[in-house]
Structures are given as C-alpha cells and as structure tokens.
C-alpha cells in the first residue's frame, strides 16, 4: 500500500510538504458513493503536483490530499482503462472544461498517486491494447492539454508553422511530438542545448535558444512558460497569428504589449485540459500514428520525492511515471 500526500501548503519548499505514506489519509471531501474504484497500474507526475505542494490552487483546509491527476489502470470489471482527470458536476453535459464547478483529481477528491483511486464511471476511457499502462498514464493531463492547445483551441492545420516555448516539459514534449505527427512545421525553444537536440529527435523541424530571433514569423505559438517567454511569443507571431496559453511556470503577469496585439490583430487564446471525447481522439491518434509519450523514467511511488525534486529543478525530459 502506498499514497503520496501533500500535508500543508509550502510555497517556498514544495518538498517539505510531501509525504509518502503506507495508506491514504481519510479524504476531507469524500467521493460520492456511486464512484468506482480503479486499481492504479501507472500514474504520471505533472507540474500541477508541484503547484499543489506550494499551495497554489489547493487550500490548506483540503489537506492532507493524495496527489496525482492522471492514471491508467484496471477498472471495476477488470477492463484496462485510462482515467480522465477532469471531474465535472453531476448532470453536466457540455464541455467538461467549461464547467465552472469542475475540479481535477487531487484538487477536491483524492488523486491517483495511490494503489486505488475512486472516479465517476463516465471518467473511464478504454485503454488501447497497443499501449502500455506507463504510456497511457502520461496522456490525460499533459498530452491532452497539448492536443487541445494545438488542434482545438489553436486550430492548427498541416503545413502551418508552430512555435513551442520550452522543450523538455511534459506538455512541451507532447506539443512537439503531436504537432510533428500531424504535419505541422514545429519550431522549439529551450534554455538547454541537450534538450534542444532531443527535441529534434522528437520531431521538431528546428530548435532555438530561448528568446532567439527566428528566421520567419509563425502561425501559432504554444505557451506554458509564461513571463520568461511571453514577449518573445508575441514577437514571433505573423499578423493574425494565434498565441495559445495553458500555463505560466515562470510567472503569470507578463507585460501585455497590447499595441502589438491589436495592431497585428493577434489572437490570445486560453486553453485548459481537454474533454473526455478529446482524450478518446488523442488515444486514437496515438494508435494510428504510432506516436508515444517521451518517458523520462519510471519510478516506484515510494520514490515520489526524487521525482518531484527533479521537476522542481527543471531536469525532467518528457514524463516521469510513478507506479504503486
Ligand atoms: N491549463 C492546463 O490545463 C494545464 C495542463 C498541464 C500543464 N499546465 C501548466 O503548464 C506548465 C508546464 O507543465 P508541465 O507539466 O509540462 O511542466 P514541466 O514538465 O515542469 O515543464 C517545464 C517547461 O517549462 C520550461 N521552462 C520553465 N521555466 C522556464 C524559464 N524560466 N524559461 C524558459 N522555459 C522555462 C521548460 O523548458 P526547458 O526546455 O527550457 O527546460 C519546460 O519545457 C505548468 O505551469 C503547468 O501548471 C496547465
């Protein structure tokens, strides 16, 4: 038995709030009785877990809380499943990401870094037999976010040029791999030469140092970095281009540069997670194209501290997978 838990908000030292326990704590908010158990076979670490340890988006009165927002495992009838981590309110019928009362697993109800997680039955999606539990566990948060940024919110089509800010992150590697598989010309920036090299191996057409002048303007920019890259993202766009933003790892209050936005008629579009249907489409895309997540390493949940430490230091390339 194992559960990876955040005990208190720890803004400056996220590792100080992490505990690996031999059983999950009693939930502060109990999942509804009709939710079904999934035996977790693999889960993956997201930057969201670091924000939770820092107390961002997770108030102290909901702690202790089991971390983890995505998983693949075995459902109540023995079927192999992928867990869609967006929990909408009962009776919600539209786009789950637009439900104002939605939460992500580990925000209100216990997360996936445990032997078992309880979820609404509608959040289970069949795992394709071609895919390992470890690969499937990378998809519901980082990869689904990338899918929606590129193809739903960004409306990118084959032949366009897209700039991905950051190379090594879970979302950034997904953007590179999915964009390349879909016939986009993918340009990637990174602070690190090794990560830039490996982005080329993942399918990037060209790589640049963070903030470097580009040879041409791009149709769309995919932003998860925030303050550190925002001005460069706006400068990189062609007139009428689209900036899709789903994260702000380096800070969320960049200068807006409104003159550039209105004069060049740029579109700035927010994007968050994805729907259950988009997760199913992403799984089909992975099966038909053969694209698979870049997995940095697979670790036992007991070693979650090492995994979080590497993410905080910015050393991860792709996804860190945790197994119970
Ligand atoms: N809205 C949503 O639904 C959603 C979903 C998933 C993630 N997110 C957010 O998206 C962000 C990324 O998530 P993740 O799980 O992919 O995290 P991650 O694996 O820790 O990724 C970090 C990425 O940020 C880049 N980076 C960090 N600091 C930077 C800086 N100062 N300058 C330039 N680049 C920097 C890194 O690029 P290098 O290659 O240079 O190291 C790397 O690509 C997080 O803020 C997360 O909360 C939002």
TrEMBL record:
Protein name in UniProt: Zinc-binding dehydrogenase
Gene3D superfamilies: Medium-chain alcohol dehydrogenases, catalytic domain
Domain Enoyl reductase (ER): 13-322
Highest taxon above the source species: Bacteria
Pfam families (UniProt xref): ADH_N (PF08240), ADH_zinc_N (PF00107)
Organism per entry: Aquipuribacter nitratireducens
